From TrEMBL:
This is Uncharacterized protein. It comes from the Eukaryota. Residues 331-416 are annotated as: Disordered. Residues 331-410 have a biased composition (Basic and acidic residues). It comes from Piloderma croceum (strain F 1598). Residues 1-16 form the signal peptide. Keywords: Signal.
Length: 416
């Protein structure tokens, strides 16, 4: 049984043109899938953000004990049961995200959904948080393309925190979580359960700090990396002994990073031109948020560290860190905002200057009009004066003429 049945599932999962609309997961209404292959709709629904620990544990139990075989395969079903029984339940009972037996860390090797060079790829599940990420990835991936991948990461972080606050009091929680995804295209990963053009994804977290079993878990993950990458060899981890800006050194070795498992779980035997995308976040603010906001993840983004960058190189993964893309978008938006503000200021200045110019022109016009009026008045005054003088002259002339006439009359009458 097991692997040999996969191609049959592959054939059965050929899309049957049934629209998958009864879920908030789907943004693309043309998405078609076999209904029996539909993942649980509870995950990512807005209300699930506020689920209490019991509701999340019930979800985990349902998905681990009765998953869709078409989605996870028989191997996946076995692995889900093992993780539930050996990691989820004992960690909750023990109140510690790590499970131990006789001071030795308990871990479970699980198969990812894909094969590399025809072989199963196995990764170690070493703690509750890693287990939750792997379970979500098993039962929810793949998703329709263009889905809100950031939302998946945020819900995973929120659920880790809800469980941690309730069950792992006194234990630190992972400070970083990460999601990796890629879109399958024709011809890629024929051994997978799914048809092309789906986005396959995986979420995982960093190992929770301050726990004595963290180093054992990191060692397991490191060994897993070495085995899977062989014959390629991982160099010394760049962050092991790396000097920081504050003068202290970090001692982060292989296996600690959130990306470690997220990347491996969708690591496929496909040509290197494929592009895996990934995004890591600081968990703090997302965990405290009372509801999901789309900018929550963007604000918590975290660039891949030097260890992760070298891991991608050695694994020959063309990895697109969404953090830089988001940062680039933010820088462009900031630039645009600054330019807009500058343009606005420039326009306001121009308007101000124009208004000042107009006001000055008006004053000038007024001055000119007044001067003209004064000139006109002066002209009028002069004209009036001239008229008055002319009139006076005329009156004097008239008086003289009359006098002369009177004198003449007088002389004549005297002569008679
Ligand atoms: Zn890293």
């Amino acid at each position: 049984m097991g692997l040999k049945t996969w191609p049959i599932f592959f054939l059965r999962s050929v899309p049957s043109l049934i629209c998958w609309t009864n879920t908030t997961l789907i943004t693309n209404n043309n998405y078609s899938a076999n209904m029996t292959d539909t993942p649980s709709t509870a995950f990512l629904e807005t209300g699930s953000w506020k689920w209490d620990a019991d509701q999340i544990i019930a979800y985990i139990e349902k998905e681990c004990l009765s998953p869709s075989i078409k989605r996870v395969g028989n191997d996946g079903k076995q692995d889900l049961r093992a993780v539930h029984a050996q990691i989820i339940l004992p960690s909750l009972r023990g109140g510690d995200p790590f499970v131990t037996n006789d001071r030795q860390l308990v871990y479970v090797w699980v198969r990812t959904k894909h094969k590399v060079q025809g072989k199963d790829l196995r990764v170690p599940i070493t703690d509750f948080f890693t287990a939750l990420g792997w379970i979500i990835s098993m039962v929810q991936s793949p998703v329709a393309p263009n889905i809100n991948i950031e939302r998946i990461l945020a819900f995973y972080v929120k659920w880790c925190s809800t469980i941690g606050d309730e069950y792992f009091l006194g234990h630190r929680q992972p400070n970083t979580a990460s999601i990796a995804w890629l879109t399958l295209v024709e011809g890629q990963d024929s051994s997978a359960l799914y048809t092309p053009h789906h986005d396959i994804f995986s979420v995982s977290s960093s190992l929770p700090g301050g726990n004595p079993y963290k180093l054992q878990a990191a060692k397991m993950r490191h060994e897993c990396l070495m085995t899977l990458l062989a014959p390629r060899v991982l160099p010394k981890a760049p962050r092991h002994g790396q000097m920081q800006t504050d003068g202290t050194r970090t001692w982060v070795d292989w296996g600690h990073c959130a990306e470690t498992l997220a990347v491996l779980c969708i690591y496929l035997d496909v040509p290197p031109e494929r592009r895996m995308k990934g995004l890591a976040v600081y968990t703090g603010t997302i965990a405290q948020a009372s509801s999901f906001q789309s900018d929550l993840v963007r604000k918590a983004k975290k660039a891949a560290c030097d260890n992760c960058k070298v891991l991608m190189q050695v694994a020959q993964i063309a990895y697109e860190d969404r953090c830089s893309a988001i940062q680039h978008e933010e820088d462009m938006n900031k630039k645009k905002r600054e330019q807009d503000a500058k343009d606005k200021e420039k326009k306001a200045k121009e308007r101000r200057e124009m208004e000042e110019r107009r006001a000055k022109e008006k004053i000038q016009e007024l001055k000119e009009r007044r001067a003209k009026e004064r000139e006109e008045k002066e002209k009028q005054r002069l004209a009036d004066e001239q008229n008055r003088q002319a009139r006076q002259r005329q009156e004097a002339a008239d008086r003289d003429a009359k006098q002369r006439r009177d004198d003449e009359k007088h002389r004549k009458s005297n002569r008679r």
